[in-house]
């Protein structure tokens, strides 16, 4: 005679649920600990928190919201178990600063990937919702590099598949590293003008120093609250050999982040003197990044016209036309050849 039928369970057992809940709790605690250990607070990245002598205005408050967006993205990326949850949060960020939040999330993913042997969170983010923000993804990688020991830098840049990842732009990671150093330690990197120890990024330790200066130039824009007169004075305080790359970074920040006036932009372009081509190139790259992300704020249009003499669409097209993906052995990196090509094409319009 057959026995009684075995009880049927539609879902996990109580023991399975308990194990799952414990794992979720542990993951949540670890995420919170990672966030507390590595993430600065919103107050710490504010201009007052950094000790920057910046007057509080509507313009500077908008600039100040940018590093705060980076912190929010980092907190989500460092704490969320599922990268899809991070992307859902990022999708709710205002389009004007969403790319900056992706910088922070990418930074978090790179750090988490570095903690284990088979991490792929950064690649997942860059292949997913981060794809339109690829240029800022690279900068976020640089933020992570500022917190990782150099031996881990070798695997900091993931290898996303598919088109649209602009591998030549991986030098923006070094730019991001320079920005981070200057923003969080202005006394050493701006006032004392420290030169970092070279690193053979893509086999070119000399260009590493130049890319760091491009990031320091971007930081100058924030440290001085977008005040063109103060930014120009800060650039002039550096050695001549460093100024061209600093100007390029300044213009990239002025165009992408905003914070100036038409008069201030005109003064910046004038003060750059013979380095105006570097100013124009930085502005073109910023316009390309905004155009690629699909959201172009008015301040980017104004700055691109003032600094490069082009509208955003023409600047993005110019950047694409000048793109260099390969370089000869022993020559400058493709990234620098790309920048140089943009400068040469702009010679007739930047006078």
Biggest β-sheet, characterized?
A: none
- Alpha-carbon Rg, integer: 22 Å
Q: What percent of residues are in strands?
A: under 5%
Shape: globular
**Got a strand count?**
0
Structure annotation, total helices: 18
Q: List the helices and strands in order.
A: HHHHHHHHHHHHHHHHHH
- The N- to C-terminal Cα distance equals 99 Å
Describe the structure.
There is one protein chain. With 351 residues, the chain is mostly helical. The protein has a domain at 28-165. Helices cover 66% and strands 0% of the residues. The protein has helices spanning 14-38, 42-45, 47-50, 58-79, 83-91, 95-114, 121-127, 134-145, 171-184, 186-191, 205-223, 228-236, 240-257, 262-271, 276-293, 298-308, 312-322, 334-346. Helix 14 (262-271) runs parallel beside helix 16 and helix 15 crosses helix 17. The termini are far apart. Mean pLDDT is 89; it is low at 1-9 and 21-33.
In short, what is this structure?
By secondary structure, this protein is mostly helical.
Write the layout of secondary structure elements.
Blueprint: H1 14-38, H2 42-45, H3 47-50, H4 58-79, H5 83-91, H6 95-114, H7 121-127, H8 134-145, H9 171-184, H10 186-191, H11 205-223, H12 228-236, H13 240-257, H14 262-271, H15 276-293, H16 298-308, H17 312-322, H18 334-346
What brief labels describe this structure?
351 residues; mainly alpha; 18 helices; globular; disordered N terminus; DUF1702; DUF1702 family protein
């Amino acid at each position: 005679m057959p026995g009684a039928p075995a009880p049927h369970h539609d879902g996990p057992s109580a023991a399975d649920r308990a194990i799952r809940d414990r794992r979720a709790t542990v993951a949540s605690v670890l995420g919170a600990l990672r966030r507390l250990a590595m993430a600065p607070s919103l107050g710490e990245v504010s201009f007052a928190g950094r000790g920057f002598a910046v007057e509080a205005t509507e313009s500077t408050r908008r600039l100040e919201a940018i590093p705060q967006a980076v912190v929010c993205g980092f907190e989500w990326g460092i704490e969320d178990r599922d990268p899809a949850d991070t992307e859902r949060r990022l999708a709710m960020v205002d389009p004007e600063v969403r790319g900056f939040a992706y910088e922070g999330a990418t930074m978090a993913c790179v750090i988490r990937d570095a903690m284990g042997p088979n991490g792929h969170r950064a690649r997942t983010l860059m292949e997913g919702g981060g794809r339109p923000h690829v240029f800022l993804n690279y900068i976020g990688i640089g933020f992570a590099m500022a917190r990782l020991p150099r031996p881990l830098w070798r695997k900091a840049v993931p290898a996303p598949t598919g088109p649209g990842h602009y591998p030549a732009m991986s030098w923006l990671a070094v730019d991001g590293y320079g920005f981070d150093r200057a923003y969080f330690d202005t006394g050493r990197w701006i006032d004392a003008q420290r030169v970092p120890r070279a690193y053979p990024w893509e086999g070119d330790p000399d260009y590493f120093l130049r890319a760091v200066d491009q990031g320091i130039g971007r930081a100058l824009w924030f440290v001085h609250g977008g005040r063109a007169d103060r930014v120009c004075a800060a650039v002039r305080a550096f050695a001549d050999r460093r100024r061209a790359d600093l100007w390029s970074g300044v213009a990239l920040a002025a165009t992408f982040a905003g914070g100036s006036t038409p008069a201030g932009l005109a003064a910046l372009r004038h003060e750059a003197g013979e380095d105006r081509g570097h100013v124009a190139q930085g502005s073109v790259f910023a316009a390309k990044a905004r155009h690629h992300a699909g959201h172009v704020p008015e301040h980017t249009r104004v700055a691109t016209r003032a600094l490069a003499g082009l509208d955003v669409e023409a600047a993005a097209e110019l950047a694409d036309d000048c793109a260099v993906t390969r370089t000869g052995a022993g020559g400058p990196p493709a990234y620098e050849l790309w920048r140089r090509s943009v400068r040469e094409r702009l010679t007739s319009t930047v006078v």
